[in-house]
Every structure is written in C-alpha cells, then in structure tokens.
Amino acid sequence: MMAQAFPQIGLRPFLPADVPILAAIFAASVEGLTEDDYSENQRDAWAAVADDEEAFGKRLGSQLTLVATLQGSPVGFVSLKGADHLDMLYVHPGAARQGVASALCDAIEKLAGARGATRLTVDASDTAEPFFKKRGYAGESRNTVTVGDEWLANTTMKKMLAANDQPGERPS
Ligand SMILES: CC(C)(COP(=O)(O)OP(=O)(O)OC[C@H]1O[C@@H](n2cnc3c(N)ncnc32)[C@H](O)[C@@H]1OP(=O)(O)O)[C@@H](O)C(=O)NCCC(=O)NCCS
Questions:
Q1: Where are the beta strands (DSSP E) in the chain?
Q2: Which residue range forms the structural domain that includes residue 106?
Q3: I want to staple 47 with a disulfide (CB 3.0 to 4.6 A). Which of 30, 53, 102, 124 is the partner?
Q4: What CATH number is associated with residue 15?
Q5: Which DSSP string do the residues of 142-160 spell out, in sequence order?
Q6: Atom of ligand 1 at shortest range from CA of 98
C-alpha cells in the first residue's frame, strides 16, 4: 500500500471549550495566509475580530461549526450561518495546503444539502477566492466591507448544490 502523503484529517462538531484555540487559529490564519492580498493594517483589523472571545464564541455557537483536527489538535474550522451561507473558513498556516479546508467544505456542503439547502453562498476573501472557484463557486458581486477602521474587499460567490446531494425521495 502507498504511504499516506499527509496525516489523516479528523472532523468533529465545535465545542465551547474550543473557543480560545479557534480564536488563535483565526488570527494566525489571517496574519499568516492573506499577506499577498491585504495590507498589514487590513490584516491587523481582520485578525482582531477574534480578540473578543465571548463574541467570537457566540458567533461560532450560533452557527453550525465544524472543527478539523490533525493528530487530535484543531487546525481549522468552518461555520454555516443559517441554511446556506458559509460565514467562516480558517486554516492554521502550519496546516495549509494539506486539504484541511477541502475536507471542511466537503462536510459542510453535505450537511447543508442534507438539511435542504439548494445552494451555498460565501463572501470570499481574495485569498480564498481561487479555493472556492476550484470547488465550483461562481462570483456574484464584488463588495467592500468595514472591519474596525479598515475597508476590505471580498467577493460574494455562489454554488448550486447537486440534486443528488439531497437525501430521501424526490417528488415525482
Ligand atoms: C483559503 C483557505 C481556507 C484554504 O485552506 P487550505 O486548507 O490551505 O485549502 P486546501 O488545502 O483544502 O486547498 C485545496 C485547493 O484549493 C486551492 N487553493 C487553496 N489555497 C489557495 C491559495 N492561497 N491560492 C490558490 N489556490 C489555493 C488549491 O487548488 C488547493 O489544492 P492544491 O493545494 O492541491 O493546489 C486558507 O488559505 C485560509 O485559511 N486563508 C485565510 C483565511 C481566509 O481567507 N478565509 C476565507 C474567508 S471567506
């Protein structure tokens, strides 16, 4: 048998005790992975969103949040807001380009589909845009949002979920 290229990625639901480590992953991800697309001031403002851990924990807990692990330690997370909007997707720089975000999105797309969503939207950062494009998301609109004192650009993208992702019988 061929050796596995990477250690196996685990997935599990978010627990309240994960908040500090997910806040740290959020900040490290923004600071470490987005420098080609956003200025230092923009990254600092964006990373600071997780500084208020209580608010950050409430946001994670109010959404369907999945945690990805490598050898038992969290390395990334995704959150689904409402039925069909991907709110957060962040991977630690030390675990980037190993398929972690792909595993998280595979799972959340399946869960959303199983709950009846027919499409997913995301306000993708310029860093994440190629990732979502490769997954079949298409750009809908270009936006500018304020984060702290900074303006950041992103792109609203949409993917239709395949009908065969829906569970159960289809009406005839
Ligand atoms: C975007 C992000 C989540 C991708 O996480 P990841 O675990 O590295 O992604 P994967 O390893 O699953 O990537 C799968 C494929 O997507 C594409 N991809 C991923 N990151 C990319 C990048 N920075 N540039 C171009 N293509 C990229 C590649 O085709 C990659 O396959 P490959 O590594 O075999 O070439 C990660 O870079 C991140 O956390 N960025 C900072 C935070 C952010 O912008 N979040 C999104 C908010 S909407």
A1: 9-13, 64-70, 73-81, 85-91, 119-125, 138-147, 150-160
A2: 9-117
A3: 30
A4: 3.40.630.30
A5: EEEEEETTEEEEEEEEEEE
A6: 11
pLDDT in the model for residue 115: 95
In angstroms, rounded to a whole number, what is the distance separating the alpha carbons of residues 107 and 111?
Answer: 6
CB 27 within 8 A of CB 47: yes
Q: Which residue owns the Cα nearest ligand 1 atom 34?
A: 97
Total tally of structural domains belonging to the chain: 1
Can you give the pTM of this predicted structure?
0.93
* CB atoms closer than 10 angstroms to residue 61: 14
Q: Is residue 129 part of a domain?
A: no
Ligand 1 centroid vs 19 CA: distance in angstroms?
22
162 — pLDDT class (breaks 50, 70, 90): confident
pLDDT given at position 85:
98
CB 95 within 8 A of CB 75: yes
Specify if 160 maps to a domain.
no
Nearest atom within ligand 1 for CA of residue 102: 12
